[in-house]
Design goal:
Keywords: DNA-binding, Phosphoprotein. With about 230 residues, the chain is an alpha/beta fold. Helices cover about 50% and strands about 15% of the residues. It has a six-stranded parallel sheet with strand order 2-1-3-4-5-6, with helices on both faces. Helix 4 (about 85-95) links the parallel strand 4 (about 75-80) and strand 5 (about 100-105). Helix 8 (about 165-175) crosses helix 10 (about 190-205), helix 8 crosses helix 11 and helix 9 crosses helix 10. The protein is globular, with a radius of gyration of 18 Å. The protein starts with a strand and ends with a helix. Mean pLDDT is about 85; it is low at about 145-155.
Length: about 230
Amino acid sequence: MIRVLLVDDQSIIRQGLKALLQLEPDLQIVGDAENGQVAVQQVEALQPDVVLMDVRMPVMDGVAATTAIAQQFPAVKILMLTTFDEDEYVAAALQQGAVGYLLKDTPTEELANAIRTVHKGYTQFAPGILQRLIAKPPEAAAADLPPNLPPSLPPDLPPGFAELTPREREVLKLIAQGASNREIAKALYISEGTVKNHVTNLLGRLELRDRTQAAIFANSVLPLLEP
């Protein structure tokens, strides 16, 4: 069970997230906080595994709270969840210890998968954010990227790779293993129609012609991205 703390200054956002995420059998919402100061206190009291952290909040903002939590409780994973995707916010959050940065319009299924992903020690970004960081000059990108993100990616990596959702990456990995749509649907507990949509989307993002190209791509690239 992954213990999650919700931090947002808007009560309706916290309530909505709790209602949606507590439907996931492996996620437990252990508490919530209306600002960064309360979040730090709640982390100490509740010992969550993952904190969903807003950026702009009164009293203490999300970046300051991330700094405090990362210093005092380094085992806690902090995933930023905000409406702001400006590079300055992204860079500040990552530099202070956040392991991911998502936007509030992220679908619930993808948000739940992102929580699982960061809990395992991986990083997680909203579509386009990682691509922007990678596109920066080396010295600037190095300052922005968290230490557990792979320092370099294959030079011929399609730009759309950074925009793949966590679910699309799972589908891609299973395609690489030779799984059919039916097998993927069974493994991920989704419908075959949903699998087909994911396959279509990832082929388009990666500019690949068919599943065979996707499998070849995945087997050549995904091992390089393992931590």
